[in-house]
Amino acid sequence: MAYALVIGSKNVSSWSLRPWLALVEAGIPFQEILIPLRRPDTKVQIQRYSPAGHVPVLLVEDGGERQLIWDSLAILEFLAEGHPEAALWPAQKVARAHARAICAEMHAGFRELRDHCPMDLLARRPLPSLPESVTANVRRIVDLWAGSRRRFGGGGNFLFGAFTAADAMYAPVATRFRTYLPDLAPYGDDGTAQSYVETIFALPGMARWQEGARREGDGGTT
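Given the sequence above, the corresponding structure tokens read:
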């Protein structure tokens, strides 16, 4: 089985970062296909791989047959099932259910934060204040991170001790906080969330992704 991951510009494509980071941190080999965003031919280039017209897309070659998976969370689930040795979900049943729940919350929610603070990985644009709806998103994430680490972290630095799909799902939020909200204390953080942001940025995969963003220059958002 061979994988290729179609992604958008690394500075801004938050959904691309999620499965890319999981593949890298799990040590699963794959080919990267980068499509720069906000260009005249971007839509056409993406539609070569994705009828839905969005990135990321995981291309799976298996026995001469190609399968397309075009949703970040679906890609993570597919990788977790195909590579149990990667432990992309926690082993313990309750922890695993909790991890899936917070991933689903990220996948479907926090629209206000995503709209007001789009991923701009290399930028530093601290915001002095936020609309009430965005503030509520940030407070929820700070509480969610602290609660997950307190209940399931087991002394590790990630949400469930070791790196999991949940960390891949929340990595783009860490980039948003670094760009726009370098101080999370006004949002209820006791230091846990700030430490977690630093943990995400200490990942070798994040260093590679940032270097890729610097090489590419800014593209667009998806």
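The first strand starts at residue 2 and ends at 8. Try to locate this feature in the token string yourself.
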